[in-house]
Amino acid sequence: MSSDPFVPADFDPPTRLVTDDFVLEPLGPQHNESDLAAWSSSIEHIRSTPGYPDGRWPPAGGMSSEANLADLTRHAADFEARKGFTFTVLDPGSGEVIGCVYLYPTKVDGHDVQVQSWVRADRAALDKPLADAVASWLESDWPWERPERHGR
């Protein structure tokens, strides 16, 4: 991994992507309850999603609301520090969390960002449209040129 900054100093990270099927906004503590419900209802589906090969996340036994809140707070701090960008995926009608997108530095040679995403099992049909929309968004609005999309 390079010692260069993850994004250029003068880059203003996008904070929203809106489609007919979902809305992306920065993940933060305000999403705790809905985020915890989303991923804990879909552990096996998420673990079978490309990009989650090691079986460590999500934790099979779940986690407490407090532990999830700490995780969301860490992601929000990474966003603020420009060390990584995590977006919650929201249903455009209800505002419920239906997934997540992670943009973090990668250790894979030849790539400049690792892109991971997941959706709830009951929204599995959105897996590919979400991955494709994020790929287009990266190409048009982000500074990276070689994303590691885990075969997506």
UniProtKB/TrEMBL annotation:
Lineage: Bacteria, Bacillati, Actinomycetota, Actinomycetes, Propionibacteriales
InterPro entries, per the entry: Acyl_CoA_acyltransferase (IPR016181)
Protein name: N-acetyltransferase
